[in-house]
């Protein structure tokens, strides 16, 4: 297993020091180009064919600092992600998460991993909804965390990294295709967050779970999601997975569920599955969603009690 750490703090400092007209290209080449295979798999152009067209920079600027924002003004935030100790600890945390699978005899098809931290834009509504931190790890071999650095978010970095490592492992075994449905995404998010809490404890469960109360889960989220588990198409799925607040930001019709509805539902569904079957979170991570869902049909009608 080879974990490559892209020290974004050093790249940010190089961009701060360069002339304004060179910032965008330097950012594209140093920060985004190492993830080229990920962009290709996601069919996101690395460079738009026309000026201001959709490409990797468009995606970056939705939640992260745009190149023109990388100035001496961000020095205090940058300092918080600049210690060797932090990067070493995250390297070890990532290795520990992946080793949970290899030590159980699960041979991971991917051996090379790339990881970095991107500084979040404090004005990003999407990042604000997740209390200043999130991650992306669904493309095997590639993980980045999005972060508005402060005491609260830094404390949760290892937990969200474990969450993304779980996604990274799952999609080495579960093929992503246009038939992926809402049920798969609910299960996937539930597996990832249960994996993270199995290592770091429920005190660090993400806000995508902790903000949901029992009444909302049982009487709003579960009834709506239960009837839509088979829907496909990423745009339609995301309306149920992310909830109405994100849907509104994207200019899409709402479906009547709160923020991160699918995440909260998935977390308690997978917890229910693990308790019922006695399987470990490591075993469950690489199982087809249909196999998990078929074991927990009663979950949808039972009252889930939140333990935190």
From TrEMBL:
InterPro entries in the cross-refs: DUF2268
Pfam families per UniProt: DUF2268
Span of domain DUF2268: 86-293
Domain of life: Bacteria
Name listed for the protein in its UniProt record: DUF2268 domain-containing protein
């Amino acid at each position: 297993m080879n974990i490559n750490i892209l020290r974004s703090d050093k790249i940010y400092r190089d961009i701060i020091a360069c002339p304004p007209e060179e910032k965008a290209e330097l950012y594209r080449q140093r920060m985004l180009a190492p993830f080229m295979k990920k962009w290709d798999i996601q069919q996101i152009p690395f460079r738009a064919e026309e000026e201001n067209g959709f490409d990797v920079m468009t995606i970056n600027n939705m939640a992260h600092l745009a190149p023109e924002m990388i100035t001496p003004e961000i020095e205090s935030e940058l300092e918080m992600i600049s210690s060797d100790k932090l990067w070493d600890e995250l390297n070890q945390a990532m290795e520990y998460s992946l080793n949970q699978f290899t030590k159980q005899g699960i041979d991971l098809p991917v051996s090379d991993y790339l990881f970095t931290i991107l500084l979040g834009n404090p004005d990003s509504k999407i990042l604000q909804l997740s209390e200043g931190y999130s991650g992306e790890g669904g493309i095997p071999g590639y993980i980045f965390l999005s972060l508005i650095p402060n005491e609260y978010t830094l404390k949760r970095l290892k937990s969200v990294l474990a969450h993304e490592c779980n996604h990274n492992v799952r999609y080495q075994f579960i093929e992503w295709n246009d038939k992926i449905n809402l049920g798969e995404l609910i299960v996937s998010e539930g597996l990832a967050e249960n994996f993270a809490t199995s290592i770091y404890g429920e005190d660090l469960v993400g806000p995508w779970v902790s903000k949901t109360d029992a009444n909302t889960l049982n009487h709003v989220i579960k009834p709506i999601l239960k009837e839509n588990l088979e829907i496909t198409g990423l745009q339609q799925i995301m309306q149920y997975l992310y909830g109405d607040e994100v849907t509104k930001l994207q200019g899409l019709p709402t479906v009547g569920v709160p923020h991160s509805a699918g995440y909260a539902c998935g977390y308690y569904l997978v917890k229910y599955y693990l308790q019922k079957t006695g399987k470990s979170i490591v075993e469950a991570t690489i199982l087809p969603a249909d196999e998990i869902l078929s074991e927990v049909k009663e979950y949808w009608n039972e009252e889930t009690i939140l333990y935190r």
